[in-house]
Amino acid sequence: TVSVNGTDLPTTTFPSQGFTGAYYQLNNDNFAPGKTAADYEFSSSASWVDVDATGKVTFKNVGSNWERITATPKSGGPSYVYEIRVKSWWVNAGDAFMIYSLAENFCSSNGYTLPRADHLNHSRSRGIGSLYSECGDMGHYTTDAGFQSNMYWSSSPANSSEQYVVSLATSDQSVFEKLGFAYATCYKNL
């Protein structure tokens, strides 16, 4: 398993979402019985992923969809190989509060897509497949990530003048008028 912002998730499917500043911890159950991260040396096959001596994995910049992390035992023996397959890469407009049309424009002008509400969070629980469910409260990440613990626009319409917004602090969903203000995040498939 990996520890992600207070929740353990399976290494078989995590992560499917990525962003600059994302991080998680490889848990000791990934290693040989009785061994911890301190018993291994870590390496990454890609420059956009950093792994420190404790097994903390950090995404440093825009990634590709496949990457391999290798944990080599310091005392010899078989290595542990963990493959990452990121399906969606996320960017955001930092602390800029904006109306819906500006959020759409921010995403499209940068070659990204404004997400559906279910891509921001498909359930109230943590799991795999959406930004919040995998990463939790986005405000807990480094300032490099740029996310806020607040409401984000989705491309999902509630009606002709309102859109669904999703809290990336709690996963709550609400409805805002298109001329109201929320934050913007966008994704692209890798």
Automatic annotation (TrEMBL):
PANTHER family: ATTACHING AND EFFACING PROTEIN HOMOLOG-RELATED, ATTACHING AND EFFACING PROTEIN HOMOLOG-RELATED-RELATED. InterPro entries: C-type_lectin-like/link_sf, Intimin-Invasin_domain, Invasin/intimin_cell_adhesion. SUPFAM superfamilies: Invasin/intimin cell-adhesion fragments. This is Adhesin. GO terms for cellular component: cell outer membrane. Gene3D superfamilies: 2.60.40.1080, Mannose-Binding Protein A, subunit A (3.10.100.10).
